[in-house]
Every structure is written in structure tokens, then in C-alpha cells.
Amino acid sequence: MFAAPARLAWLDALRGPAALAVTLHHAGWTFVPGVWAELDRRIDLGSWGVLVFFLVSGYIIPASLERRGDLRAFWTGRAFRLLPLLLAASCLALLLTAAGVLPASPGLGERPWPLVALGNVSMLQELLNLPALINVTWTLSYEMAFYLISVALFATRQAHRSAGIALTLALAAVPLGLLLPRATIGGRADLAAALLGLAVVAAIAVTVLASEGARTVAAVAGGGLGLALVVLGSRGGTWQGVIILAVMFTGTALYRAEQGTISWRAAGTTAAVVAVCGIPAKDDPAWGAAVVAAFGAFALAYALRGRSFPRWLPWLGLVSFSVYLLHPILLHLVPDLPLFLLALIPLSALTYQLIEKPGQRLGRRLISRTPR
């Protein structure tokens, strides 16, 4: 009934509830909006879920990068972790949209298809002001920006500065948010979006394929582009976008404290400052409650990391990416909440087995065969 404690089982035990929180947020507004409105004005469960995801990514991504010690292996692993399911789900969403089953994303028919494809495959559509084929993939744009910045820090041997980076971002988010309340990369700037998206893809490609010197230059360029896109392109406003980055680097600071690179006092101070600066990033008390609850949930899971968890909880974390990507599609295919909940988990388990796991295995094989 209970699984033996694994080194990172506590992270999977966080991912599962986070994915379910986002799912319930969208399902509540779809099926029981009157009831959900009462809960949502107290705490935004959807924001809680994505903030937990961001903290988890901040903790695990630099650890993964440093464990591999190789930028090629990192980007290969990320590509084969995310793209197989993302491409499959996006194609399904497109087919269902063409069939009239799913509503089209705003602006989907107004922007050039190659540009929309570039934005969604690169996972930067949110920061390039491009339509998303699946609405929840806006979070992947911030994940990509974080990857780019983390790779730049690793390539320049500055990765240990995560606490200072988180503090700087949090403190800068307030004046930047007041000065840039809306994205300045916006409108119908197709050429700018195309050039920026291609520049990021080129930076990643050079990082993966080029020699060491060019790889470092490309990594730094990619990190600069990632930061600029968040500051200038966040559709939720610069304050909120920069705070999201600060939240991820807070996760990294907590990892550094665990490894003994920085003190727990420094990590705790970082978390407190980021939370305080993040609470007013959105003019909604439910957002502030979500920020506090996300940090609290992460702290609780970390405190329990040596304990055994019920087997279903880490397993739910394994299929959480499928739950996250598929639930917006399934919402339009089933007529009521009970049927939606009954169908989602088995479907996610199936796509995990048939798409996610094979993709991860292929990625690992490619990494093992690729010279550093």
C-alpha cells in the first residue's frame, strides 16, 4: 500500500496534486461555475497548481543539468521528455478544432500557420504573443525561459548564484511591473515573433551541436533571450512573469541549501522575499492565497521527503504531464464532471505508457550514444 521512500518521490507526490488542482480549476468553471466561484474567490487552485509546478522545476532542473554535466544531454532529455506528448496532444487538438468539437484559440486563424507552429513547438507561444493550441501550455513558455537561463548560468559557471538571482528578480519585479504593466512584444508583430522564436531555436541548436566555445556563446545568448522574453513578453504582465522566474529560482535555492552550497537561512530569506513580492503581482486575493499555499505545500512535502507515500501518489506524479495536457481537450468531449474525472486518469495512464515512456527511453538511448 505504501511505497518505500525514494530520493525524489516527494516531488512526484507534489506533481500529482498540482496537476489535479489545475484540472479541477478548469473542470469546476466548466461544469459547476456557481459552486466553483465561491471557492475560487478564496484561493485560486489553478494558480496554486502551476506555482507548485514552478517550484518543483526550479528544484529539479538545475539538479538534472548538473547531474548530466552536459548541455547536449540536457536539451536532448528535455526534448524527448516534453515534445512527444506535446506534439501528439497538439495534433489531436487541431483535428478536434477542425471538426468543430473544440473551440479555436483566439487568433488561431489570423496568424500564419508556420509561425503558430514555431511558437507551439518551441513552447514559447505565450511569450511571443502567439495562439496556443492547448491553453494550459502557457506555463511551458516560462519553463523554457527558465531552462534557457539555467543553461546560460551552467555554461558560465554561475549556477550557484540562484538565491541572489531569485532575490534580484523578485525585487526587480515590482518596479518593472509598474513600468511595464503589459507585454511590449504583442499585437500582430509576426516578423518580430518569428525572428525571436528562430533565434531561440538557433541558440539551442548551436548549444547542442557546436564546439565548446560556440556552445557557451550560444548558451549565454539563449539565456539573455529567455530573460528578455519574460520581461517584455509576459501576457499576464511583467510583474507576474518575473515573479514566476523568481519562484523557479527559489526552488533552485532550496536545492542549493540541501546540497550545502548556501545556508538554509539564505534560502529561507529568498523564499520569504519572493513570496512577499509575489503576492501583489496580481490584483486578486485568491492569487495571494495561492502563492502562500504553494510555498507551504512545497515546504511540507520537503519535510516529509524521508517518509513513505501511498503508491498512488508518486504514480499520479508520473502521469501528471498527461493529466495536465489532456484535461483541456477532454473537457469538451465528456458531458459531466463525474465522467470527466473517471476518464481522465485512465487516459493519462495510457498516454504515459504509449507516448511519454517510449519518448523518454529513446532520449536516454540517444544521450548514451552522443559523445560529449
UniProtKB/TrEMBL annotation:
Report which superkingdom the organism of origin falls in: Bacteria
Acyltransferase domain span = 9-334
* Parts of the chain that traverse the membrane: 45-61, 82-104, 132-156, 163-185, 191-210, 217-233, 239-255, 262-281, 287-305, 312-331, 337-355
Q: Which UniProt keywords apply?
A: Acyltransferase, Membrane, Transferase, Transmembrane, Transmembrane helix
List this protein's GO terms for biological process.
polysaccharide biosynthetic process
A GO cellular component entry from the record: membrane
An example of a GO molecular function for this protein is: acyltransferase activity, transferring groups other than amino-acyl groups
Q: Can you say what this protein is called?
A: Acyltransferase
